[in-house]
Amino acid sequence: MKRNDALTDVTGLRVGHARVAGDRALSGTTVVLAPEGGAIAAVDVRGGGPGTRETDALDPRNLVQRIEAVVLTGGSAYGLDAAGGVMAWLEERGRGVRVGPDPSHVVPVVPAACVFDLGRGGDWRARPDASTGRAAVEAAARTAEGAPVEEGDVGAGTGAVVGQIKGGIGTASTVLGSGITVAALVVANAAGSAVDPSTGVLYGQAIDALGGRVARPSPEIHAAAERRLSAARERNGQPPLNTTLAVVATDADLTRAQAQKLAGTAHDGIARAVRPVHLLNDGDTVFTLATGAVPLDAANPLALNEVLAAGADMVTRAIVRALLAARSVDGPGGAFPSYRDLYNPQ
After folding, report:
1. pLDDT tens digits for 161-185?
2. Would you say the C-alpha torsion 12, 190, 203, 207 has a positive or negative sign?
3. Phi, psi angles (nearest 5°) of residue 43
4. Model pTM score
5. Of 23, 158, 193, 324, which is most buried with the most CB atoms under 10 A?
């Protein structure tokens, strides 16, 4: 049964956020911490301009079987330094790939991916480093198992923007008829739009309704929102650069190849919620984590299909939740109104 509609509904996973300090800083890091002993992991990179670390280690043809943590971070390629802080924290606890006779002889493999948010708070050099990563993993470790996950302008979503609308962190989960839990956590940060220009409805919200009715903003509200976004676009100048990141997790007992397939199909969830995606200046990246607690039906060769479909659905829902949780920003780095401020004026 769903508990928090969050990534942490997959038993054993924890999530922690940390923000870069400073009045003109608008960036941060989010860490997904696996249970001790790690989880089966995979990655699929579809963007033409990714910023990543240790993704080759997740190739099913390569050595590493399990990982202890995934890092999602702001700061573009600079922010990948955050993974160093997570790596050090894991080493201190003897968590990682054993490479020597002593239990402390480990090399933690910490895959990471970054979004572009440089200068969004006004200070180009305010970006995550190893201390930010350490703060995020420590925050994750402090949380109780199954704790709710904070959404919106936190962690790697602190400076996230989708089109000209404030983006952020979002998460969602579901429990399948088989008893398998599938969940997603996203950092929604894209040059593409999440809003249907003809109606003002979020693309992902319309799809998530599955044929039901979605309340449309009035033409007057939609026109006012378009004017405000046009003014923000003129003020901000350079359009935001792309990258939507996601971690899709399940308690299903997946092979590394099956986890790889799940990471690939989960990209469909991004494409449903943001248009365009996967261009040359995108860094769109999806990680998969599988804890292996619930076996797939061995008698059904297509048992993985429901997990694949749910992964994409959860990514779409998580992007919607990120946009609905975000708050407007208006500062020296630009004006980025939130979807709620634009389409639900009080």
Report:
1. 998 899 999 999 999 999 999 999 9
2. negative
3. -150, 150
4. 0.94
5. 158
